[in-house]
Amino acid sequence: MKELPKDYALRTIGDGGKRIWMYPERPKGRFMRWRTLAHAVLLSLLLVLPWIDVGGHPGIHIDIPGRRIHFLGLTLFATDGSYLLFLFGFIVFSVFLFTALFGRAWCGWACPQTVFMETVIRPIERLVEGTPTQRRKLDKGPWNANKIVRKGIKLLLLLVISGALGTTFTAYFLGRDGVLEAQLHPSAHPAGTFTFLFLTAITFFDFAWFREQTCLVVCPYGRFQSVLLDANSLLVAYDEPRGEPRGKKTDPNAGDCVDCKRCLTVCPTGIDIRRGTQLECVQCMACIDACDDIMGKLGRKPGLIRFSTENAIAGEPTKIVRPRVVVYALGLVGVLVAFAVTLSHREPVELRLTRQPGVPYMSLPDGRVQNPMRLRIANKGTEARSFEVDVVSPPDLELVAPTPFVVGPDKVEHMPVFVLRQPWDGGPRTDFTLRIHDDKGFTKDVEGELMQGAGK
Ligand code: SF4
Ligand code: SF4
After folding, report:
1. Which pTM value belongs to this model?
2. Which domains does the chain have, with CATH numbers?
């Protein structure tokens, strides 16, 4: 990769750490059209999923008190922890593979930070405060009535949007009914109210002030992308051999770059892509559209800045299939296959027999020994199930249980089970087996341990 100059520094941080505001212009072009479409789809999904039903539950609901997650019709319980490992593996291998192939395209095209900033916040800003040039002038100008009114309206709109997003983000955790209930009765739902206020506050802080600093100084992804990229990765790249030396259109010795700086004025992170690949580039591709527009006006072919590889720019062949890509792809396929296999073997009901808290056993007046147990039943299916319990062994075991015991879909219930037996020979403990079955054809044996005093 091309080395950056020694004086290289973040464009958004000035002397003494002073914030330098960005006023990116919005170019017209094919990448901006595709990106707007991608952002609209992602934004719709993000805003809609916690509010709509998929398979009888919200599209996505991370139900912390209920210790389960509803994800597009699939309900995962706390005991399905292995699925979190698959999710982790999926994210890691996807990020590695995607970055090795397409660089930091996630940042510019799919990251919620960019999606909101480019598709919601900047258009509002443009509507209230005008073009980037007008905004810069407004910011530099005195605090007169015009500035106070415009800034006030903008901040109010950002606060309303942050509140709407805070509500939706909270709905991911409380469910749609929970979040509305918490908003109607805030004092009765302190946790929900705090979550809503906290998410609204950080969203507002991000939109109103922090902005691209999130990508430049907070997000860890930008930091480690350099180790995932190589000369065969697709990047937004400036064709230096073609563009340099920069000069006027009329200069016969100049390259194709006329140094109009249009690529700089559209960059949301304020970088000059002509200096090479930089950590701050979120691959939004605005500079490609901007430069293509200039090339078109000059009657030159587009692509002075383009989505390409360093090898291609240098005239070398690009290798898409290379060892790191193969390793990441195999890892990703492995995770997906393991997930599919585990999912296909997932039992519709999960059972766990434990001892009830308190006295582990007691002797009844008729001489029998009673052990109070508790059967945890997690119904992972979409229909209610009616459970019965039978004795498998030993044959003289007796049971008292409130059967049939109905457990609703995606519910976890605890059935009290009292196990009784005449005192037995052979020590204070002995094993027993119960058979649990339901009206949907599910059957499973569970084992437990029976206790009596010191034994006969
Ligand atoms: S937009 Fe194109 S021509 Fe203008 S400065 Fe950037 S690279 Fe050069
Ligand atoms: S250099 Fe180009 S692609 Fe990278 S962030 Fe700036 S405008 Fe977007």
Report:
1. 0.80
2. 23-79+111-211 (no CATH), 232-313 (no CATH), 349-451 (2.60.40.10)
